[in-house]
Amino acid sequence: MLDTVWQNIESSTRRILNEFTPSHLKDMMDMLRTRKVFLDFDRRSLINNSVFHYYIGFSKSQFQDILQSCPSISQRYKNKAGRALATVITKLHTGESNQRLSQIFNMSRKTLEKTMNLVRQDIIREFVPQHLGYNNHLTRQDVISRCLTIPNTLFGNPDASLTQRKAIIGTYIYLQKSSNYYFQRKSYSLHKFRHLLKPFLMVCPDGHIIDIYGLYEATKSDATILSEIMKNPSDPFHWFFHENDVLILDRGFRDCIEDVETCGYSAYMPLSKDDNEYQLTTQQANDSRKVTMCRWVVETINGRLKNQFRQLRSQYFNVAASHLFDEIRIAAALLNAFGVPLKDHRSK
């Protein structure tokens, strides 16, 4: 009985193979040659909503808002403006290789890369200033209004119009090892044991990104970066923020606290234990918890950036590092424009 079964399997397999003729192969190749574009972003109504969100990360209406905010793209590409914009957004959201994206958008890789470079410049010039940067997209009062109940109660003035909260921290973008020895040495982190660059984020307590500084080499500490900002009188930081405004920091900024306070700002960070002590005192532990309760927002925003835009969590090729900072700013502006801000949990 068992032998009969195996004979049937062998005969059925042979029959299937014999039925696959050269004409079938020709038909398959013809289908590939005459295939249509899988995603037509200029006819978005024909794309399934879930498929659209998979590649873009935003809804069709949000995508249309981005396109309307960048008139230069529509002027340059006319009826293909949707596809042109989608090349940059899809690259950021999915992190796909340029070779695969060129197949999705049915264009050569060289044309794809040229299109992305031009569209990226238009987005940086027209869309990003509306949602990122000092006083371009929000005022000081807007920042004050974004202070949540907990940071305002722990570190602020009961009158919200007289105080504001801000959290500052760095995140990392990984790079390939460069053949340039000087750049290779500057971009290697002894802390992460790999090559990386550091953007420097300034974030409101509700998760709104005020601005991004950078990019900084891996060998430069967070404290050094903030000290440079404090010591630069022409930096817009100093006219946007006022005396006694609050900076919520982590221990990585301990070496620049003096510079921050010299400029008239108040700085808070988790405390370290005293000399010859094995643990924090009760008061020190409670003060550290207060900072931690407010500082987690920054980690959340870093996570949102890298979850929403997978390109930022992948290892960048060095040839793409020239527009890395632009892509970070575009991602932050998109998150500000369409992300859901953090809110207070009101007790019933």
Task: Give the gist of this structure.
By secondary structure, the chain is of the alpha/beta class.
Mean model confidence by pLDDT: 81
Kindly identify the CATH topology of the largest domain: Nucleotidyltransferase, domain 5
| The CATH homologous superfamily of the largest domain | Ribonuclease H-like superfamily/Ribonuclease H
| CATH classification, class level of the largest domain | Alpha Beta
Q: What's the end-to-end separation, in Å?
A: 72 Å
Helix tally? 16
Q: What's the helix and strand layout?
A:
Layout (H helix, E strand, L loop, with lengths): L1 H18 L2 H12 L15 H8 L3 H10 L1 H7 L3 H14 L3 H7 L4 H19 L12 H6 L3 H7 L9 E6 L2 E2 L6 H6 L1 E2 L4 E10 L5 E9 L4 H9 L6 H4 L5 E3 L8 H6 L3 E3 L13 H27 L15 H15 L10
Parallel strand pairs: 1-6, 6-7
Antiparallel strand pairs: 1-4, 2-4, 3-4, 4-5
Helix pairs in contact: 5-6, 6-8, 7-8, 8-16
Summarize the structure in words:
This protein is 50% helix and 10% strand. Strands 1, 2, 3, 4, 5, 6 and 7 form a 7-stranded mixed sheet that branches. The radius of gyration is 26 Å and the shape is elongated. Strand 6 (246-248), helix 14 (257-262) and strand 7 form a beta-alpha-beta unit. The longest helix has 27 residues, at 282-308. The chain folds into 3 domains: 2-33, no CATH class; 44-129, no CATH class; 136-338, Ribonuclease H-like superfamily/Ribonuclease H (Nucleotidyltransferase, domain 5). Helix 5 (71-77) crosses helix 6 and helix 7 crosses helix 8 (109-127). The chain has 348 residues and is an alpha/beta fold. The protein has 16 helices and 7 strands. 29% of the residues are buried.
